[in-house]
Amino acid sequence: MNCINFTAKEILPALLAREKVQTIRNATDKKTGKLKPPRYSVGEEVKIYWSQRSKSKYFSTDTGNPWIEDVLQMKEGSGNKKMFNKEMGRVTITDVFRVSMQRHFDGGLNRWTINCPDSTWKTKDLIVSITPEENDMRLFELYKRDGFESESIMFNWIHKNYDLDKEKHFWVYRFRWNKDEKAKR
After folding, report:
1. Which of 10, 85, 135, 145 could pair covalently with 22 via S-S, beta carbons 3.0-4.6 A apart?
2. Is 94 a member of any domain?
3. CB-side exposure of 137: number of CA atoms within 13 Å?
4. Does 185 map to a domain?
């Protein structure tokens, strides 16, 4: 079963509350610079992890940092909700589409552009051309579904990790949390 791993502390509260129902992932192969096919497909069940490569099994709900083992031993079984299991549950992919993003530095201000380059995708939430200044409801949906508090936090995080000074392509995966799967906390 495929997995989606998260480490961005900016989205942790939404992830813990299961309000995060989308992830944006790089669509460009690092070696070749060519567009990669989507990793996940509609209908596929995927495991959700927090800091999957960490040796720690439990993490702080406040910071996203690993719990120290002796603290864990004192807290485990006490019903304390200040920690969570790295395996957060399972989701089903509901929609997959590609977007491109770029930063434009305009008179000392960042201006962000998102485009949906292929209008033939069958998605009910097709993104055509969005800038934060337009205050478009579709942009609100994009950053809220992804678990960010605002579009500027989302764009700044993506820019910090992917350098949007040049246009970059991303796969947007939307999902729903499986109801029969309880979060391991």
Report:
1. 145
2. yes
3. 1
4. no
